[in-house]
Amino acid sequence: MISNIPKWMIGLFGNKLAPNVKVISTIFLSPQVKKISFRGDISEWDFTIGYASVIRVSETEFRNYTISYHDKENGVFEIIFHIHGNGTGSKFVDSLKVSDELFISPPRGKKLYETNKQQFFSGDETSLGVACAWLPLLKKNQQQFQFYFELDEINKNVPECLGLENYTVFPKNNSFRNEKWISTLPLFQSQQWKTANIALVGNVRSVQAFRKVLKDKKLGTIYSQGYWLEGKKGL
């Protein structure tokens, strides 16, 4: 779904965009990372890893977010939000409190994994939800996996708070956009990772840099999805 819809077009959707879930709990894992639990009818939703839901953040604006946990039986799900800057989405999420009602669409998109390969994942704060959703599946399938995160100093302990495993946190100092630095990462020198499944998400420029290096090295099967880009709204 596009990030902005004219008011006249909103009217065409009618009740389809009416609030359909309620906030049941909120917690800040850091000053910039907020985990929110929702309740609603999710019995028919598809929670394939890599899919994202559209959230209505104003009368005419929408943003994509990834569900990090779900319990269909009880109609409960969670999303981990990165609150950064003064964007419409960040301000809306920051304001959400228990009992608030809002519209969230069923997840849709493209998957990021193959079950029969080793798994490598890179991302930033916007990617933590995908990692959390993925971890139980990776452990259930007894797959070898590694998470790389580029995080601001204020958020460096969030992966631990979320119970993530096999992760490395790197400072957000543009290293993930430095092709020479990426090419020297020890993981990419190992023969056992040459056929891995590689998921690159988060900042568009970081995704592009990793993708170029890995394609040049002919490493793995690459899946990529940019979640945000400086200066662009509602990517």
Automatic annotation (TrEMBL):
Q: Where in the sequence is the signal peptide annotated?
A: none
A GO molecular-function descriptor:
oxidoreductase activity
Q: Which residues form a coiled coil?
A: none
Which residue numbers delimit the FAD-binding FR-type domain?
Answer: 16-114
Judging by the UniProt lineage, the source's domain of life is: Bacteria
Matches recorded under Pfam families: FAD_binding_6 (PF00970)
Q: Would you tell me the protein name for this molecule?
A: Oxidoreductase FAD-binding domain-containing protein
